Structures are given as C-alpha cells and as structure tokens.
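Proteins fold reproducibly. Look at a sample protein:
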Amino acid sequence: MLFMSCATQISGTLHAEGQADLNVNTSLGTAITGLIRAFATVSGEFSPDAPVLDGAAVSASMSVAPGIESVSLRNRTPTRLEGPVRISQISSFLASGNAAGFINFEQRANGGSCTINLSLSSGPGVLSHLSPEIHGYLEALMAPLATGERLTRTEYLELVSSVYGRGVSDEIAASRINVSLEFPGQVQSVRGGTYSGRRAEFDIPLVSVLVLEVPLSYEVIWN
C-alpha cells in the first residue's frame, strides 16, 4: 500500500535571515491518478499524454503566492513533480495580507525557534494561497482543508470511500509527507518530530493535514 500511495518529500535549509531553500518531490498514487483522469474525462479535458500534476501550471500559480521568491517544478512523470522552491521570508509564507502566518520564525543572538500551527480555522486560507490546481484537487476529494467542513479522520475516509471507492480512501490513509530541514544552529528540541545535529525530521500522515481534526503543531528550537 505504501508503494502505491501518494508521497511528498520536502528537504532543504532554513537560513538565519528567515529565507528557506527547499526541494520538493511529490507524486500521486494509482487510485488518485485514475480519479483525477476521470474528472478530466468528464470535463472534456482528458489527454493521455498530459501530466496529471502540471509542473508548469503549479509553478506559475505558486510563484505569486505570499512569501515565495521563486519556484520551478517540473514533471519527472505525468504523476510526479520535482524542483526547487525558494521562500523569501518563512514567517510570511502563505500568509493573508498583514495578518500573521501559520509559521512563526525567530532568530536571536543566542539561538532561535520556528513554530508551525495549522488548524481547521486557518488551513483553508493557507491552502487558498498555494495553488488553484492543488486546491481544486483537494476540494474534489472533499478534504476539510479545502472545504472547512468539520469531520473526524474516520468520517472523512468513510466519505471518500462511499463516493470514490475504497482504493482512493486507502491510498489517502497510507500517504505521508516527509520533511527534512536544516536549521541555523544545533537543534536543541523538537515537538512533533526527531532531530540530529542541525537537522530536524518530520513524518506527517497526509490525512492528518487534509482533515485537521486535531490542530497540527510543530516546533524546533536551536542554539
């Protein structure tokens, strides 16, 4: 199941000035790929050679999102995207206007901290800044992250299974987001992950992000 599931890997470096250089690698599983192609067929936009995730389109929309300096995603396969993303200021990443974003970054003389807090009240707004293409897919999958509806993890997977079949819901349940980041100093503590030296690692179930039944909260402190 893990082999067939969707997967996202994010690795990179968070700099002392608040910028971040990331490399993103994301792919779709077979069941969700089939579902998206079925959507395209119904809308009359299906092409067997077209990418399911269009790197150029996602890059173009993400490049104007708050806090992003540059993005260059390319298709390795029709269902896989890979490429660099440079964030100009992590605290303003996907933030709305002058409001504080879901990431808080502080670099002090003797160390620093970075916290991430994502809830159902803030999640849909964050997603709306990311990419219309990704938002559209998650809205079609009825993910509370896109719709704002309150569902438990079990209720959401049962809903997806009843509408799109067990294969799609099983694929979502098995999918992970793996994040590996290097920080400006030696990491002293991590909430929600593990660490070694200057690097922190996070292994996040995709369904936890899609549902946000429980707010997600992560913190890294370094010296």
Q: What stands out?
A: The radius of gyration is 18 Å. The longest strand covers residues 7-14.
